[in-house]
Amino acid sequence: MSDHPKSCHSDVNETNVAPTRCCESAAKPAEPAIGCCAPAKTETAVHTHAPEAAGCCPETKRRDYLLWGGLCLVVLLYGAHLSALLPHDGLGIAAHTVFELINTMWWGVVIAALFVGLLAAIPQSLIMGILGQGGSKRGVFRATAAGLLLDLCSHGVLMVGMQLYKRGASLGQVMAFLIATPWNSLSLTIIMIALIGLPWTLAFIGLSLLIGLVTGLWIDRLVATGRLPANPHHEPLPADFRLWPAIKAAWAGIEWRWGLVPETLWRGLTGSAMVIRWLLVGVLLAALVRALMDPALFSQWFGPTLLGLAATLVAATIIEVCSEGSTPLAAELMTRGGAPGNAFTFMMAGVSTDYTEIMSLKDTTGQWRLALALPLYTLPQILVVGWLLNSLN
């Protein structure tokens, strides 16, 4: 027998089954074909990955029905408003809301796509170095700052946050990163400025960073005293690591060419697909709220009262919307409900009580008490800040 791997068109005598195509599975389920380019199976070979992942055939890209469906609905409602054929009732109000929000946010989305492309070019090793030593005050500050700069939504941040934990970041750093990242990204900051103005946007950013820092330092303190278990993956940074030389090396490694800017912009547009998808969902939800809920009723249930704050907390817990989708809804709470504290609570509590985030923490750390530490140590701070914002408004 030849030592070279068999092609997908050769006979497979060992199994007496010859797949007719590269992507077809062998008839015997106990011995799946790993791929047409894979070497012959040996007695000692152990395959832990799915056959599809190791095969030579490209993976079928799934159509993003939420993105395209939301885009179609937004375009239809936007066009309906331009046609001026709809009466000023439920559907007409929804179309006007879509028209108003899209005209407000489009420039922020375009600028955000450029930021996403720039941030995607930063080496991951440099990002890990920026986070600093886990368990220290400087490390928590750096994790919070990284969360502010990274353009990630509340669902996309989970992949990075869990990877940071596996790479040795302290539990406090991970918590600070998760709290600071989802809606303090550069793109959403621009969109928030367009929706609620610069002063309130800066106030929300400062208060959320404060909660992230307090929570991160608090949890790291509990780990240091033994009340919470430490990260078993923790390893100290190399003694010879220097941040600025690493930054200079990354800068020197940039290949300057004419196609760099278009590639960066395209990378940002493709990387923003998930952001745009949830932004469209948020626009449609905001249109639905305006069309179905009377302004007086909206102010009554989600106004600047303790009842409104409690209703906002319940809504943030139940509604599974990404941070991009929650941004237009939070703007509705502030502009129509007159409750900046409710808007802040809706965005922050949506991160703290998100069951996807809690379950991801549980699966990564293997302990419920570490996963439940996220809402336990953040919700009281969020509610107090929300109440103060409503009282001082």
From TrEMBL:
The record ties this protein, via PANTHER family, to:
UPF0718 PROTEIN YCGR
A GO term from the CC aspect = plasma membrane
Membrane topology of the entry: Multi-pass membrane protein
Q: Which residues cross the membrane?
A: 65-86, 106-131, 143-165, 171-195, 202-219, 265-289, 301-319, 370-389
- Matching InterPro entries, A to Z? DUF318, UPF0718
Q: Kindly indicate whether the keyword Transmembrane helix belongs to this entry.
A: yes
Location(s), subcellular: Cell membrane
Q: Which UniProt keywords apply?
A: Cell membrane, Membrane, Transmembrane, Transmembrane helix
**Protein's recorded name:** Permease
* Signal sequence residues: none
Q: Does the keyword Transmembrane helix apply?
A: yes
Similarity comment: family membership: Belongs to the UPF0718 family.
